[in-house]
Design a protein that fits this description.
It is a single chain. The chain has 312 residues and is an alpha/beta fold. The chain is 38% helix and 21% strand. InterPro entries: Metallo-B-lactamas, NDM-1-like, RibonucZ/Hydroxyglut_hydro, ST1585_MBL-fold. It comes from Sphaerisporangium dianthi. This is MBL fold metallo-hydrolase.
Length: 312
């Protein structure tokens, strides 16, 4: 299938075709003794992901585990649907997100307030998963992949309070979710992902330090794809966070409203990122909608409003 890319080590990248677009959100299949899907994508992407797994020889009773880095709908919106397609699979998530997969009503109501009429098109509806099928991870935990292989789970908040990074013992791949930001393979740019309401600068930087200390061989971004320059990318991620926070703090201190703050931060950061080619412009536009300046600045503003002046 044209949306499946082998990455070596029995790992396959699956383009979930979020909202019908290519290159926005990736899921990953680890095809070992106990096949494991990392990230489901959205609810509307679930049939795309199922077809990809079928093409890789994973039938309805073969998938052992579904694990999500966090419960935002572009990562976990398809959990309920995928759980229905694969009745033997255990659903794995950090304990702070587990109740929202069993009862998504609060999460969906919050998403409706943020996205409004775009919700159905972008994400669809997260269906509930039977609580008995959900495994809640502790801050440090492990997921058995069979054959002596495991995913070590490491609590990594800052982007979201229910976020984990996942380190593959066989390949050294680290599934970073959104904790290291959003990587655009078309331009090589890395941008922060600091949405409300959970963003916290110090916590986010601590999570990046944790990732570096784990010594991964490769970072697998949910947005989007594999990156091998691990120390450089993690350092860039921390640098981007600090720059966006400093600029937003300046706007906040000057009393700017959100629209003016977004415009200022966009202008001040424009030269940090490559201009997309005409072929890549639509993909970059989709990234901007999903995790762009309005969301990032709003998340930083929210953190500043609830922080003391000395925070960060």
């Amino acid at each position: 299938m044209d949306n499946v890319t082998p990455l070596g080590g029995d790992v396959y990248e699956i383009d979930t075709r979020m909202a019908g677009h290519a290159g926005i959100t990736a899921g990953y299949l680890i095809l070992g003794d106990r096949p494991c899907l990392v990230e489901t994508g959205t609810s509307t992407s679930a049939p795309v992901v199922r077809d990809a797994l079928t093409s890789l020889g994973v039938g309805p009773d073969d998938l052992a585990t579904v694990v999500v880095t966090h419960i935002h709908l572009d990562h976990a919106g398809g959990v309920g649907d995928i759980a229905g397609f694969y009745p033997s699979a255990q659903i794995v998530v950090h304990r702070k997100g587990a109740r929202h997969l069993a009862d998504p009503s609060v999460l969906m109501a919050s998403a409706k307030r943020v996205w409004g009429d775009k919700l159905d098109t972008l994400f669809g509806t997260l269906s509930p998963t039977e609580a008995t099928r959900i495994r809640a991870l502790d801050d440090t935990d492990s997921i058995d992949l069979g054959g002596g292989r495991a995913l070590a789970s490491h609590y990594s908040p800052g982007h979201a309070k229910h976020h984990v990074g996942l380190l593959d013992s066989a390949t050294g791949d680290l599934y970073v979710g959104d904790a290291a930001g959003v990587y655009l393979p078309q331009t090589g740019d890395l941008r922060p992902a600091t949405p409300p309401p959970d963003f916290d600068l110090r916590t986010a930087l601590n999570s990046l330090t944790l990732f570096d200390d784990l010594g991964p061989q490769r970072l697998l971004f949910s947005h989007y794809g594999p990156v091998s320059d691990v120390p450089e990318i993690l350092a860039r991620s921390a640098e981007e966070l600090r720059i966006w926070v400093d600029l937003t703090r300046q706007a906040h201190t000057e009393g700017m409203d959100l629209d003016h703050a977004v415009a200022m931060v966009r202008e001040k950061t424009r030269e940090r990122y490559a201009a997309p080619t005409s072929e890549d412009a639509e993909t970059v536009r989709q990234f901007e909608m999903l995790s762009g300046a309005p969301s990032n600045v709003a998340g930083i503003m929210h953190w500043l409003d609830r922080s003391s002046p000395a925070s960060g």
